[in-house]
Structures are given as C-alpha cells and as structure tokens.
Write a structure and sequence with these properties.
single chain; 297 residues; alpha/beta; D-Maltodextrin-Binding Protein, domain 2; 3 domains; eight-stranded mixed β-sheet; 24% strand
C-alpha cells in the first residue's frame, strides 16, 4: 500500500464514480481501477461494492478510509509546509552575533531580511565569538559571525568587516597627544578588556605577551560603550576597533593608532561546511554577502 492507493480510495468515495475520481486525480480510469484492484488483492478484502452504477465502500473500505483519511490530511499538510519552506514563506534562522558587531553592523541587514522573508523567524543569539564558535560546531546555530582566523577546514565563510584595533586613552592621559603607540609602551598601563569568553580578550592578551608583558586587567565588560566610558573615567586604557572608536565621545577619550604590526579586527560570516544548511540560512548568507559587498569599505 502506498499513498496513491489511499488517494484513489478517498477520491472514489468522495466522487461516487471511478471516472470522476480518475479525472480529479489526472489519471486514466483503467489505471485507477487497476490500482484499487491491486490494493484489494494486497489486503485480501473488497473495498468497494460494485453493484449498481455507484461504487460504495464496504466495511473494509470504510476502515481503510477511516485510518487513511488522517494520513492523507497529514501528507497534504506536509506538502504545503514543504512548499512554504522552499519558497521561504516560513522557517527559522538561527543567527549568532557578537554584541559589538550586532549593534553596529547588522540591524540594516536583519531589517532587509525580514522585509524579504517576513514569514521566517530570526532567532538571534548574542555572545562572544568563542561561544558562537562552540554553538556553531554543536549545531545550535545555522550561521554566525566569528573573528578571524577561523578553522577553514570546518567553516565556509566570507569577510563582512575588515578593520584594525586602536588604542583608547582617557582624554587627559600623558600619551594622548601621540600619533601612534607601540603596544610595548602600554606595559605599565591598567587595561579594560572584553570578558574572557570574547575572542578579543585572548587576542589582546596574546598580543601583549608577544610584546613582552602581561596586561594588568582592572575591569572587564561585554559592552564596548561601557568599556569606552570606563576609559573616559580614567579606570584604564583599552583596545577597540577603529569603527567603534569613531563612536566614542571625543571629550572623554582619545584614540591612537597602534604602531606596526598593529592588531587586525576582521569578522567573517561563517557556517559549517558539512551537514544540512536550512533554506532560511542560505537566503541570509546570500543577502548578507550582497549587502556587505556593496557597503563602503
């Protein structure tokens, strides 16, 4: 028995005619009759009484229809839902963004995605790139923004932000009038950093170690604006991306270039190379690639 057999029984019972049922199913009437005979032979019972002009369900036929009807309804619902998913009239996008990137670079992209696919729910997870990497690997996210370098053997990706880190000092700091600073010159300064679960925390402490010192971390936060405010209050110095530094209050802080080799800040949109990628995620990737490619550098 397959779904076509159930459809034949249901349509004949509904139409009261093999001919009209065949027309509704877009098959030849002999083909439909043959399908019913095959099913009757398989089950070992008659499904229709063929006395008179109008076929009538036997008790066995009524049982088949009673149990088969809900199956047909479920199959119809399945087909409709799969069509909706294929045409992105519904679905779910599980997206991971670091807070600093999310608030500054992605509201417009998310807004355009919702305008194009209003039936798709966007489930947004905000966390540091370390946590997002873990969730992507565990299959808890479809796509996420990570800080380079990433595992190219595991991820497909494309660049969304290509930036550099700058030094953030209190406005009255003794070094605030310098055009640039080497990282080693900050060895005696107190640092305000992102929390340890943020990739930048490890990148900055590693860069300091390479410059010959261990940073004195006096405060940590998950919010770039709070970090800027703490620097403005004189708690310490910080390293933040240049695009973020442009949003800090110049009356409170000064931002300086890091002397070569500097410290890059490059973000990529990443997803797993292997495994199933939902259509909603594919649409997000295509849209984000298009919008970031057309954005000013």
């Amino acid at each position: 028995m397959d779904i076509r057999h159930l459809e034949a029984v249901a349509e004949i019972a509904k139409r009261g005619s093999f001919t009209r049922a065949a027309d509704a199913l877009h098959v030849a009437q002999p083909t439909l009759s043959k399908a019913v005979i095959q099913l009757e032979e398989e089950l070992g019972v008659l499904l229709f009484s063929r006395e008179g002009k109008r076929p009538r369900l036997t008790e066995a036929g009524e049982a088949v229809l009673r149990y088969g009807g809900p199956i047909l309804a479920q199959m119809d619902a399945l087909h409709r839902e799969l069509t909706d998913l294929a045409e992105l009239r519904q679905g779910t996008l599980r997206l991971g963004l670091p807070p600093m990137a999310g608030s500054n670079f992605f509201p417009g992209v998310i807004g355009e995605y919702r305008r194009q696919y209003p039936g798709v729910a966007v489930r947004l997870s905000e966390a540091g790139a370390n946590r997002l990497d873990e969730d992507l690997r565990a299959g808890l996210l479809d796509v996420g923004v990570l800080l380079t370098p990433t595992d190219d053997a595991f991820y497909d990706s494309f660049i969304v932000i290509d930036d550099r880190m700058k030094v953030v000092l209190p406005a009255g700091h003794r070094l605030a009038d310098r055009p640039s600073l080497a990282l080693a010159e900050l060895a005696e300064e107190p640092f305000v950093l992102f929390r340890a679960d943020f990739t930048l925390h490890g990148r900055i402490t590693a860069a300091c170690a390479a410059a010959g010192f261990r940073p004195n971390i006096v405060a940590e936060s998950s919010q770039w604006d709070f970090i800027g405010q703490m620097v403005g209050e004189g708690l310490g110095i910080a390293l933040l991306p240049a695009t973020i530094c442009a949003q800090l209050r110049p009356e409170l802080v000064r931002t300086l270039e890091l002397a070569p080799p500097g410290l890059p800040w490059q973000l990529v949109m990443a997803w797993r190379r292997e495994g199933y990628l939902p259509l909603a995620a594919k649409a997000w990737i295509a849209l984000a690639r298009e919008l970031f490619a057309s954005s000013p550098a």
